[in-house]
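Hi there,

I know you've been waiting on this one. I reran it after we fixed the sequence typo, so this is the corrected version. Both the input and the resulting structure follow.
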Amino acid sequence: MGAWGVGPFDNDGALDALGVLDGTEDLAGGLASGMRELADADGYLEAPELSGAVALACLVAARSRGAEDDAVASGWLCRNLFTPTGALREAAHATLERAIRADDNELWELWEESGSLDEWLTSLAPYQRAVSP
């Protein structure tokens, strides 16, 4: 049974993305690449990949605002230092905007079908504010 919860770090796609980048030498490059690849993608996006990109965007947002309540993300941020540059914040913003588009991604559809769409959107709102231009 996989992990699945309303928070951006509460699912297998997010945990996989964090695991791939944990301890990476070029952390800022890995974060940017992981977000941009999906934020800029054309067509329909699958939930696991988009969940991973959302988690990366939320890491950038959490580092930007200087706090993170989620224990998994907080631990990851303590082990992995990076500066949330303007380019990373822009990529995070684009990724979160892409995730909340209703017409072309499985993640949105799954939350809508589960009846928890509003709760999911609410969980993303503080991260969106942290990286808004």
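Quick highlight: DSSP finds seven helices and no strands in the chain.

Best,
R. S.
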